[in-house]
Amino acid sequence: MSETLENLYSETRTFPPPAELAANANVKAEAYDEADENRQWFWEQQAKRLSWAKQWDQVLDWSNAPFAKWFVGGELNIAYNCVDRHVEAGHGDKVAIHWEGEPGDSRTVTYSDLLKSVSQAANTLTELGVTAGDRVAIYLPMIPEAAVAMLACARIGALHSVVFGGFSVDALATRIQDADCKVVITADGGYRRGKPSALKPTVDEAVAQCPSIEHVLVVRRTGEDVTWGDKDLWWHETVEQANDQHVPQAFDAEHPLFILYTSGTTGKPKGILHTTGGYLTQASYTFNAVFDIKPETDVYWCTADIGWVTGHSYIVYGPLSNGATQVMYEGTPDTPHKGRFWEIIDKYKVSLLYTAPTLIRTMMKWGDDIPAKYDLSSLRLLGSVGEPINPEAWMWYREHVGHDNAPIVDTWWQTETGAMMISPLPGVTASKPGSAMTPLPGISADVVNDEAESVPNGGGGFLVLREPWPSMLRGIWGDDQRFIDTYWSRFGKGAGVGDEWIYFAGDGAKKDDDGALWLLGRVDDVMLISGHNISTTEVESALVSHPSVAEAAVVGATDPTTGQAIVAFTIPRGNVDTSGDAGEKLIQELRNHVAKKLGPIAKPRQIMLVAELPKTRSGKIMRRLLKDVAENRSLGDVTTLQDSTVMDLISSGMQESK
Ligand code: ATP
Ligand code: MG
Asked: Domain Acetyl-coenzyme A synthetase N-terminal spans what residues (predicted)?
């Protein structure tokens, strides 16, 4: 991408916070000024939300940039902050997790229960020889033991490396090998799509290729038969029998907390390293500020899997450090029926919901009548994360889920940033559908051109972060050079220009006329059409704004006349007829619709109507595979693809349409 992104889309709707929410908001507008005045002082105030065993001597040490140290000399225990201190404050009987299994079984876990289980698991891991600095792989379904296992590792200073429970033998084995894990914590299986889905056989195969693994700790969830080896131990025969007293030890603020591999949307996943004090400070602060949590009355639900960073920061560390009550759900949104999510919200009276655009668009496809059948009146705030949310999906979320008054917080962040970076503040910001709006207090995000110059309002370019932030990654596990090359060598000092270290996020963005930020997808995905840089996101949003479209993915394919031409893959809404001529007519209508919305330059050369799109396991569209199809190439790395049959269908459809 050179210079700027064309700015094709304009949005004029704004939605100010409801008056009552604004009046009682945890964080008010002053926070921005305070943080601007003195960023380090601001983060120091947020660190005081936590309980420290030893106070820090220095807020930030940036002398070895881009390797940061935050709260230097401070000491704390993360598990103590997420569990013990709430029990000590008299909240032991408060529900930490309302767990809902896919088959409809449920469990209630209080903070006292959590303390007992985490202490037992910490004692068991210690007996198994795990000590501070060791790595433990976690490969579990969405059951409370997943949170317990993570907190137990944190409690004894071992690093967890959570691997999504849907990943293959290879994906699990390479992640175990990359981090030299000593123990794997897994289960016999979990429930998915109405039946038990085994995990243990995958672990058995992976462990056979991983000599570093000494023990495999197995939770019994489905009760299905498993093959038993000499490294295997049942969770209920070890952890649940262990001593439930465990004294947490304080660790250095920069003690490593976890390794987490990125989603793999753009290529080979990177083992992102996070540490203790700064990470928890920002995870805890942002959860409080952006979800406006009132721990006494709110019920929060994040639909992400614990295998993604969203599950780390906003199922485990953010909510639990705030003493929140949350829902955890094991299964898929359409089992046993397509109203399952709304049923759960109704059942637990969920007030704060955090989900992903992919799910919102799926719900749009399924139809408005489904959420309408449930009582969603408990919801008072809605969040979105993972991809840009198209303005029409945002509106659908607001109208059909948020009964037209719950504010939506569109939160931009990455595995690398550890916690939210750009988002509205629900009690302050008048939000625009599709925009993540402004950097949070204490965060300095900017949109720049090729020369790292800030673009004016109305301009587009690269999203960068100009100042270090507490929950920033401390590196890529075992590969400092890749860390520097990937994030710090595009702009600023790392590129040999000036004295400022500038973090390159890899995402395109624009500032609208009011200075609000719009995320426009991956820089690698930007299309160059007849000399114009056009973002995939804007064309996709134009398609989704048509009433017949639920979801769209757009790529630039080589074209003899225009350099690249736009090829769009579009999923129609459930009630739309696409058979024969009706399909052809819709395609023409959609091409014209995009041209009308964004200008003739953005008119797609080709539109294919498809039933599904290729997505990562975390639900993000993998445009690079669609580009391979559009350009008639064999497919690149598909290991993080959710469903490989999707690509066969799309490829054969593409051949027919030629
Ligand atoms: P990889 O780095 O391996 O390709 P990934 O980037 O998909 O994988 P994550 O760290 O899970 O892995 O995702 C972060 C990315 O998700 C961001 O860089 C951005 O592209 C996208 N993203 C997350 N939240 C938002 C949001 N609110 N708006 C727009 N994009 C978002
Ligand atoms: Mg990424």
From this structure: 30-82
Which-ligand-closest: CA of 261?
1
- Distance (Å) from CA 86 to ligand 2 centroid: 34
Rounded Cα gap, residues 102 and 97, in angstroms:
15
Of 111, 108, 121, the residue nearest 87 (C-alpha): 111
Q: From the CA of 413, how far away is ligand 1's center (Å)?
A: 7
Give the pLDDT band (50/70/90) at residue 1. very low
Ligand nearest to the CA of 507: 1
Nearest Cα neighbor of 412 from 463, 339, 345 is 463
Measure 364 CA to ligand 1 centroid, in angstroms.
22
Distance between CA atoms of residues 544 and 572, nearest Å: 9
For residue 424, give every residue at least 6 positions away whose Cβ sits within 8 Å of its Cβ, in sequence order, or none: 290, 407, 408, 409, 410, 431, 436, 437, 438
pLDDT above 70: residue 463: yes
State phi, psi for 54 to the nearest 5 degrees.
-145, 135
Q: pTM to 2 decimals?
A: 0.96
- Which atom from ligand 1 is nearest to the alpha carbon of 415? 10
Q: Is the C-alpha dihedral spanning 494, 500, 502, 508 positive or negative?
A: negative
Cα R_g (the chain), whole angstroms: 24
For 292-316, what is each residue's pLDDT tens digit?
999 999 999 999 999 999 999 999 9
Domain boundaries, the chain: 532-657
Q: How many helices (H) and strands (E) does the chain have?
A: 22, 30
Q: Which whole-number Å values give the CA distances from 63 to 73, 191, 240, 501, in the listed order?
A: 15, 49, 46, 11
Query: What does the pLDDT look like over 237-262, one tens digit per residue?
Result: 999 999 999 999 999 999 999 999 99
| CATH class assigned to 532-657 | alpha beta
Give the number of other Cβ atoms within 10 Å of residue 575's Cβ. 11
Interface pTM, i.e. ipTM = 0.99
Please, what sign has the CA dihedral across residues 345, 546, 522, 39?
Answer: negative
Mutate to test the pocket of ligand 1, among 486, 487, 519 (most ligand atoms within 8 A of CB): 519
Q: Is 410 in the pocket of ligand 1 (CB under 6 A)?
A: yes
Q: Quick check: helix, strand or coil at residue 333?
A: coil
